[in-house]
Fold this protein.
Amino acid sequence: MTDTLMESAHLAIGEDAADRIFRHARTTSQWSDAEVTDAWLEAAWDLAKLGPTAMNTVPLRLLVVRSGEARHRLIEHMGGGNKAKVEAAPVSLVLAADPAFHEHLDELFPVYPGIREQLAPATETREQMARTNALLQAGYLVVALRSVGLAAGPMNGMDFDGVDNEFFADSGWKSFMVINVGVADGEGSPHPRNPRLPFQQVTETL
Ligand SMILES: Cc1cc2nc3c(=O)[nH]c(=O)nc-3n(C[C@H](O)[C@H](O)[C@H](O)COP(=O)(O)O)c2cc1C
């Protein structure tokens, strides 16, 4: 057993859950025929949305790409080998950050009255906040997808400006990732898993 697959005495979730979410889960490019319904995606979102974001901004937005027509529009803007990966995926999610997240803050962050108006003219700050927090939410989304039995294949080899012009010209959303989603066929990856850096190598304790 490699160190990434070892059982841990410190788990607060079941071994099965840790296996499903982390130890056995792979970045997936090989899919079964299982249909990914909107209800299934919504179940994942209902977990992912609870992950923390700064001032509860929740700036991640998702474009669900299902139809052949939408898929071809997306493939146009994917890089090299990622075109075939979108082609093969049951569903692809385009992840984007919404710089206009502040419009929702009266509801999402009522503890700070006036923050919506305060952020309205601060375009650059909003863009940075949207990106940072949407990226965090992308991580939560991968974990959430795995938690509901779906597999994820995240990719960012793509032309972001092209995707934004194609899909987000009206909304102003800023794409930053595509996640292919479905049920994995077996392990879901043709490659063995690469190693990860151990705790001792990535920590400095003062
Ligand atoms: C933000 C992000 C961007 C990635 N971009 C690409 C990509 O453009 N194309 C691709 O084939 N894989 C891409 N990957 C897949 C990674 O190489 C993969 O997740 C990593 O090697 C871990 O693989 P594993 O989960 O199977 O252990 C990306 C992954 C992440 C998280």
